[in-house]
Amino acid sequence: MKMNKYVSILLALLLLVSVTPLTAKEPRAQLKQTVDQAVERIEQTDMNDTGQLLNLRQDLVELFEPTFNFQEMARRSLGAPARDLSDEELQRFTKAYREFLERLYVDRLINVQTKAEEPYQLESVEFGDQELRGRYARISSTIALSQGDDTRQYSVSYRMVERDGNWGIYDLEIEDMSLVNTYRTQFSEYLGNNSIDDLIQKLNQQTEDREFDKELDPLQSE
Amino acid sequence: METQRIVNFSVGIFMVLGLLALGYLSVSFGEVNLWGDQHYEVNAEFSSVTGLQPNTAVELSGIKVGYVQEVSLEEYRAKVSLMIRRDVNLPEDTIASIRTRGLLGENYVSLNPGGLDMMIPKDGSGWIQDTQPPIAIDQLIAQFVFGDENE
Questions:
Q1: CA distances from B117 to A70, B61, B114 (A)
Q2: How far B75 CA lies from chain A's nearest CA (Å)?
Q3: Which residues of chain A have pLDDT under 70?
Q4: N or C: which end of chain B has fewer CB within 10 A?
């Protein structure tokens, strides 16, 4: 369970990125800059203040949206079944998947941080080299997280693709585990017996059921 | 005299058929393609390819669609050249994973085609961008026996 919490925090931190779309030819420099901005934003937040947490959630969602290529991520996560979908179905799925990821990881970060006896601290983020191959880039990094005296390091790779002159993240690999590959396996199993509408409904349902909303969101508790 | 000629002729025919059969078996078992290679080359890079050898099968949905041509080291990462059947089109977001048949069986490369419309080129310059290394069974067993230090 403890491991899961670390991974959630990591994923949330990775999803926090910049206001600036990655338009430069140097995706590594842009990515580093935006990660630094996101970390700074988290460090400014008092995790015991509900109002600040709600603002943080909103800010984080707005921050990372331009940096991720959610359309690419959704299509890749669906895998082969995406080829049979209409544009309208793909758009609905992309929206549901994006909201699901945002809520899942941002809210989980907040939940874990607010409930932990000792909050997690981000010790360092070190970026390695970038590997460019055509329209694709892999940027590796090492993230150190600590809780009390316990510090752990994780290797994280950002997979980016350049479309229409903009670099966007389409996958994250933590300790060689790919987010897209993991969801592709789950989605293809689910779509074996269910329709795309069922999957969209399930994602929407899980997005609405997020724990953070029920406990801390004033609009939800009214 | 006539009978002797028939026997000689029969032995000759038998020898020719035997040699043809031997030739066919050699070509067949050696997987030599006499009519040009009906495969195209695609490269993939893995963080580890433990146990992967040339001629290992490449499968898609459990069906063999190619084989591993070469495994080499490039910038401390493993580069694998795959030969894929020409009639198989691979989307750009295909994921290649190294799997093991059964618990202790042989390795093979499994391809999971994606949902993009763009295809990997068949001119030998194509790359599979997303790969998954093999699961380290020995590490899993060690974790099971000695416990996971993270737990």
A1: 16, 19, 9
A2: 11
A3: 1-25, 111-116, 210-222
A4: N
Kindly state whether A180 is in contact with chain B, defined as any CB-CB distance less than 8 angstroms: yes
Provide the pLDDT for residue B133. Answer: 83
3-state secondary structure of B13: helix
- C-beta of residue A199 within 8 angstroms of C-beta of residue A191: yes
Retrieve residue A180's tokens: 């897209």
Retrieve residue B55's tokens: 């001629």
Give the pLDDT of residue B121: 94
The C-alpha atoms of residue B64 and residue B44 are separated, in whole angstroms, by: 17
Specify the pLDDT at position A82.
Answer: 92
Q: What whole-number distance in Å separates Cα of residue A154 and Cα of residue A150? A: 13
Residue A220 or B111, more confident: B111
Predicted confidence at residue B21, as pLDDT, reads: 92
In angstroms, what CA-CA distances link A68 with A20, A60, A140, A202? 11, 12, 16, 22
Whether A75 has its CB under 8 Å from any CB of chain B: the answer is: yes
Measured between CA atoms, the residue of chain A closest to residue B77 is: A131
Q: What angle do CA A167, A157, A81 make, to 5 degrees?
A: 70
- What pLDDT, in 10s, does the model give residues A93-102? 999 999 888 8
Question: Could you tell me if the ipTM is greater than 0.85?
Answer: no
Tokens, residue A3: 């491991």
CA distance A127 to A104: 25
Backbone angles phi, psi at B39, to 5 degrees: -125, 160
Q: What is the pLDDT of residues A22-57, one digit of tens each?
A: 454 588 887 887 777 777 887 788 777 777 877 887
Nearest neighbour of A79 by CB, restricted to B113, B129, B148 = B113
CB contact under 8 A, B129 and A76: no
